[in-house]
What we know:
Blueprint: H1 3-24, E1 27-28, H2 36-49, H3 51-54, H4 69-75, H5 80-90, H6 101-114, H7 128-132, E2 134-135, H8 159-175, H9 198-205, H10 209-222, H11 244-264, H12 269-290, H13 305-310
Parallel strand pairs: 1-2
Helix pairs in contact: 2-6, 5-6, 8-10, 10-11, 11-12
Amino acid sequence: MSMRTRHAVAVAALAATTAVTQAQAPRTVQDGVYTAAQASRGGAVYGQQCASCHGATLQGASAPPLQGDLFISHWQTTPLSGLLSKIQKTMPADAPGKLTPQQSTDLVAHLLNRNGFPTGAAELAGTEAAANAIRWPQRPTTAAAAVPAGAVRAPVGNLAQLMRGIFFPNSNLIFAVQQQDPGAAKGPTNVQAGTSTIFDWGMGIYTGWQVVDNAAIALADISPVMLNPDLRCENGKPAPVTDPDWIKFTEQMITMSKEIYRLSQTRNQEAVSDATGDLSDACAACHAAYRDVRGRGAAPDPTNPQAGANRCNPRR
């Protein structure tokens, strides 16, 4: 083989390797995944359907801002399909599903444009598979602002009260998806009939999938209180917030609640119903270790005084 031939082969091999590497590298919104014309169409849709809630300049009004670091940090851990699905399935808030797939995709292009991401030669495709292959660029994390003294306060209630007032009702609202499609909800309960409770009335105000969204968010955001060093159990004992299992179970609850919320945004009953099993397992694991005090093979007995006395003690 001549010197010239060997050189040509080496160049071809290098080109092939580079092409494979580029093909394997995940695309991000920095790579020009939409066109200027598509962003312009999305801007028109935004003005008609979104500006009244999110503000004419995307800085927020009655709904959160859609421009800036807060917006990007909210979405950067998921593929671009997460944002596209959110728009398609839940927006506008007063008429979810009203937007066509093309309008939803154009809106994503508009948001990318307004957040400073470059245009490209090809339009963003509106399929889940296409958007799922596009990621957000990873940004360096900044140190969190110092928490003002006294900002973290002791809970008003004990652990049992938090469970009964927040964890129990909201978990059951999520578990109800197994039997009922939230999208088929008929609307507010008729309290005039005298057959409903104030709880039924309250849940009737926010109907359908909003109830599942709110329940998942409530669980995710209240769960860190489980690690508050001032939290007490019903029997007065300090909650074992430094116990490795306690921390693990709390993190599992936060993770599963966030996942339920993500799946709820798809408005897919089967997907949420399937995930309720993992949520139930997360609850049961903690209960078995810290709540359910009983003999081997016996069912939990909440009337047993010893059960309350021994709760919050880790069983190893």
